[in-house]
Design goal:
Length: 201
């Protein structure tokens, strides 16, 4: 009986989280329900609760993954060692590099690219990331010491997360729009507040 009750509570909790996530996504740039290829589904273009087709065990990921190599950010004042996008950033780029169709999920053939589906083509970062904020680099005390213009990663607010010690797309952006901010940001950038969580200027 206890096991049954625990299972029921876990299911209710999971459904609660799903409904909270879908409530935040509704009306955001990641709400695909109005697109014909979305099939009226709010979660399925990215996630599948059972038998997901791609990246088993990874966020129940259901979208085709990009296989691109990228031109990385480079600057004489950039002290980090950038890597090819990995982890959660690879999930983001599976739509945002323009090489994989937005509707390439489950068994869909995939025909809708991001610059067709959106009038604002800046959402398509393409594969040249040299003019975008660097990602997939280790943000640690060594980097803070080398750079001299960064705050310690231990001082970052809870909204600004590192992933395995690295700065990724999701460090600044929330795919589920839980903060209801422009550009799916994790915190307001009014007065450059988001930038200044890392940059000591």
């Amino acid at each position: 009986m206890k096991k049954l009750l625990s299972a029921a509570l876990a299911l209710m909790g999971g459904l609660g989280l799903c409904s909270l996530a879908s409530a935040a996504i509704t009306g955001s740039a990641h709400d695909f329900t109005s697109h014909p290829w979305g099939g009226g589904q709010i979660c399925l273009p990215c996630h599948a609760p059972h038998n997901n087709q791609n990246q088993p065990g990874e966020l129940l990921w259901n979208h085709d993954m990009t296989i691109q190599s990228y031109e990385l950010y480079s600057s004489p004042t950039f002290d980090a060692v950038p890597g090819q996008p990995a982890g959660v950033s690879k999930f983001c780029l599976s739509c945002h590099d323009g090489t994989v169709a937005l509707d390439a999920y489950t068994n869909h053939p995939g025909t809708a690219t991001i610059d067709i589906a959106y009038p604002d083509t800046t959402a398509n970062l393409e594969t040249a990331l040299g003019n975008d904020h660097p990602i997939s680099f280790t943000y640690d005390e060594d980097l803070v010491t080398k750079d001299g213009g960064l705050w310690s990663p231990t001082s970052l607010p809870l909204e600004i997360r590192l992933f395995a010690g690295k700065l990724e797309c999701a460090t600044c952006h929330d795919v589920h729009n839980k903060y209801a901010l422009p550009a799916l940001l994790n915190m307001s950038n009014a007065g450059s507040a988001l930038c200044l969580t890392c940059h000591d200027k």
